[in-house]
Amino acid sequence: MLLSSVSQRQCARLLSRRAFSAQPSSTSTDPSSVEWKLRSKAGRNFIDRLRCTAVGGHGGDGCVSFFRDVFVPRGPPNGGDGGHGGSVWLEVDENESSLSCVKQQLRAPSGANGRGKTMHGAAATDLVVRVPRGTLVREITSDPLAPAEQQSGRGGHNAYLDGLAERVREEERARGAEKKSLFVHYPRWEERNEVEGIRLPPEYTAHLRMLRDPVPLQADLTRHGQRVLVAAGGLGGPGNPHFNLPGDRQPHYALRGLRGVTRQLELELKTIADVGLVGLPNAGKSSFLRAVSNAHPRVAPYPFTTLNPYIGSVDYADARQITVADIPGLIPGAHRNVGLGHAFLRHVERSRLLVFIVDVAGPAPWDDLRALRHELEMYRPGLAARPSLVLANKADVGERARENFERWQRRVSAETPLVPVSAKYRKNILKATHAIRQMLDSLPPPATA
Ligand SMILES: Nc1nc2c(ncn2[C@@H]2O[C@H](COP(=O)(O)OP(=O)(O)OP(=O)(O)O)[C@@H](O)[C@H]2O)c(=O)[nH]1
Ligand SMILES: [Mg+2]
Asked: Which residue out of 15, 299, 404 has the highest number of ligand 1 atoms within 8 Å of its CB and is therefore the one to mutate?
């Protein structure tokens, strides 16, 4: 059996309680159980997938006012412009390791309204949200009429088409009404102002068009400092001096500020590391990461000690650094998300080199390796064919480990390097890190985004 101490079903049941944001469960009081561990700080704070809404700030309204003085009863217009609304940005910060700092509502502040005496409203500051390197941003597009389309039979399809036609008619109606509602009027001038024929400023119409037909957003944030605009702030409304035209020197209207863009987003963190450690639970992945890097993931003699990915960096004598990701253990069925396999596998998906850590003192380490490769291949075809290295860990554990290793070495093909190590007692670690580096250096450099 591949996983002796914890049954597959038990792991799946316990881990399935870890929702998107790793909600703790309340029953267990056994400190070695997965439930207990999920209640710990690390389990609760690590979020690698979430949905949020980004809302750009509203633009401030333009002002309608006129210069007045003792001998100037009908002075020129002097209403200030409204300030622009703040935009929402996502920015990569390599010191962040989780999406836990991202709130569900990302709302940028609104711009201030313009005032008389040509006082323009202040523009709002942008909201910059820091996300970890490797964050994928996707817009969730939802068509409110889509469920009707999915209904079976002709009736459902007709209902969908009728709904679409009605929506188009509604939009046309709104367009006529919208133009009126875009204006701010001088007191008691609503009826007298003839705003239908007025040409809106080009940037204003461009913003309106953008609000009506938003371009779907998709981004992959891979570099420190990289930024993406997820919700543009609304445009401030121009004050009445903008409409001071030869035919009308006393415009009694200005434009309202426009709302910002609103987007429903899904953020997913897919860790970027040079090397991904893959192994069954308890194989010694975290012990290996501790042995080679400055990271200190928890090590304990029971499965699922690690519940979040950890990244450590291996420093070589010539100042070369290699990042290594330790992920929670995989169990058979991980590709079907058993034991939250998907949540873990996404963190090695982008590694250039996979390092399989296998307990060589187990009954059949070669079967463990086959099972791991199978899970990777089923999760994403081609993943198992990624350049890899096998570390036969726990080589210090007596006669059985030595026999297994010798048997295994006779079986493996030349292209799969097999290195015996003892992560716990730090034996043969240099040879392993040397082999990792050699393999990485022989690979083509990573594609830069
Ligand atoms: N004898 C021996 N024990 C080891 C070795 N490497 C790890 N162990 C022990 O194996 C147990 C599990 O080690 P971990 O590093 O937590 O294993 P893991 O693969 O990270 O486990 P999960 O995080 O649960 O997936 C611990 O008790 C370690 O002390 C080794 O080389 N030799
Ligand atoms: Mg671990």
From this structure: 299
pLDDT tens-place string over residues 306-364: 888 888 999 998 888 899 999 888 888 877 777 677 778 888 888 999 999 999 998 98
Q: Which of 251, 229, 233, 226 is nearest to 241 (CA)?
A: 251
CB 275 within 8 A of CB 355: yes
User: Is 50-141+182-268 a CATH 2.70.210.12 domain?
Assistant: yes
- pLDDT tens for 180-219 read 678 889 988 888 888 777 888 889 888 888 888 888 899 9
Ligand 1 neighbours, Cβ below 6 Å, are: 279, 281-287, 299-301, 303-306, 328-329, 393-394, 396-397, 422-424
The answer to whether residue 119 scores a pLDDT higher than 60 is yes
Sheet with 353-359: list strands edge to edge: 310-315, 321-326, 275-279, 353-359, 388-393, 418-420
How far apart CA 62 and CA 26 sit, in angstroms, is: 55
Q: Over the stretch 28-79, which tens digit does the pLDDT of each residue have?
A: 455 555 545 544 544 456 788 899 999 999 999 999 999 999 998 889 999 9
Place of tokens 């690590």: 46
Q: Answer yes or no: same fold for 8-46+270-442 and 50-141+182-268.
A: no
ipTM over 0.90: yes
Q: Mutate which of 15, 282, 391, 419 to test ligand 1's pocket (most atoms within 8 Å of Cβ)? A: 282
DSSP reduced 3-state for 263: strand
pTM of the model: 0.76
Q: Output the CA 325–ligand 2 centroid distance in Å.
A: 11
The torsion of the CA quartet 258, 260, 264, 268, rounded to 10 degrees, works out to: 160
- Give the class (CATH, top level) of 8-46+270-442: alpha beta
Domain segments of the chain as ranges: 8-46+270-442, 50-141+182-268
Atom of ligand 1 nearest to the CA of 421: 31
d(C-alpha 184, C-alpha 58), whole Å: 15
Neighbours of 69 (CB within 10 A): 7
